[in-house]
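[job 0412] stage=fold_complex status=start
inputs:
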Amino acid sequence: MEKILCVDDDLSLLRLYQEELTEEGYKVILARDGKEAMAKFEKEHPDLVIMDIRMPVMDGIETLTAMLGKNRQIPVILNTAYPQYRENFMTWGAEAYIIKSSDLTELKQTIRKVLDKRKKSKKS
Amino acid sequence: MAEKILSMVLAGGKGERLYPLTQDRAKPAVPFGGVYRIIDFTLSNCLNSGIRRINLLTQYKSLSLNRHIMQGWNIFNPELDEFINLIPAQQRVGEDWYLGTADAIYQNIYVLQMDRPDLVLILSGDHIYKMNYMEMIAYHKKNKADLTVAVIEMDKSLSRHLGVLEVDEEFRVIGFEEKPAVPKTIPGQPDLILANMGVYVFNTEVLVRRVIEDAKNPDSQHDFGRNVIPAMIHQDRVYAYSFRDENKKVAKYWRDIGTIDAYYEASMDLISVDPQFNIYDQEWPIRTFHPPTPPAKTVFYEEHPGGRIGGVYSSLICHGCIISGGKVFRSILSPWVRVHSYAEVRDSILMEGVEVGRYARLNRVIVDKRVKIPEGYQIGFDLKEDARKFTVTESGIVVIPKGTLLA
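[job 0412] stage=fold_complex status=done
writing structure:
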């Protein structure tokens, strides 16, 4: 089962991700800030990370850098309400950049696309 | 408005083949030409080109380099947005040191994000040459290139030591091979190749994208020459810029001083009648750290037979030296060298603070900083004997490293 780490400081949103992505057949792990995310990242070795940018304790950009430092191939989907971070070079290491929405269709499609791409490149 | 240019100088080279000169210092900090360090030539190129926004990326054995930069290059005016920053490998991105030239940029993307330049000029702190980078940047803009690589024409027999570019008639790069045995030659010039000088002008956004892609590629060695450029030529506008030398000689001069023998040869060129590399051109000053030091001086001229004469012939001799009753032929003396009575120094390179005792004799020796050659000591006459204690190169140059105690 593919493992997804969801990182967001909004607990209700995390619950929504957990519900919907579990239904899609993923194992879902939750973290509420970057620091907690790093601890779970190193313990659980997720296949993919979905992460907010503006968070307390350790923000999504710093966490992304730290995750890539541990595993340069880890696909991270940045999921934020703010389009302006797209310009920031530090977000370019992410696999995708999605504007937050209560409709998770785009997020789910992106997750599938990224994971399928990973599978393919691993096979070849 | 003119575009914003940021220079990133890769100054972390270990210079393993220059050992023991790199025993205590990174390659860019190796002294050259009496008063200079290797890094001074690249930084002088920046200064003479009007590029005064410089980040120096350091890692191995950087103390000596840091000190030199602080002492000699602390000349930029922050009020005019000029700077030279020393950036050590900080492990912001993982726990690795720089894995290659492209990785050094990847690990410093945050620097590019903070500065947001239009163009990034990537340079190596290891090379000796004179180049006006602004001409290359104008060429880059004219071609609307994503990347421009500076190249120098070389004889094709040297291809095994170089990165070789293949270009079309417009000098657009269509191939790139690292150290090929059978190289692609210049169109219309079957004996010449275009060699990579390690000087790159990148559009910043393309640079960031390509080094991130490279970083994620587990098969890459994370090197611009080996990996990033070959991957770019199929998708980006990559041009070669034919190096225009500011040295004003017939042959273009560019040296990657990789070995002790190459170091010795390039150094000795400076004292020849008509050196290939001109350090006396006032239109292209080479800057370095010049502490307040007294003039060089020779002592003793005793005209009676067997009398002492302090003399220097066909040599480069720096400030603060005292040649007191000894003789120096075809040698390079850094500041504060002492040569005592009846000593003889031939075809040698003596670095700062070296002292040659009475009756000592040196022949084809590189003596690193502050080593004291004892009275009557001889080096460079019996290479077998010398090789038991010191590094002796293929061509017979003996190297006495820093901190050596002789008795």
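[job 0412] summary: The CA atoms of residues 102 and 119 of chain A lie 28 Å apart.
[job 0412] exit 0
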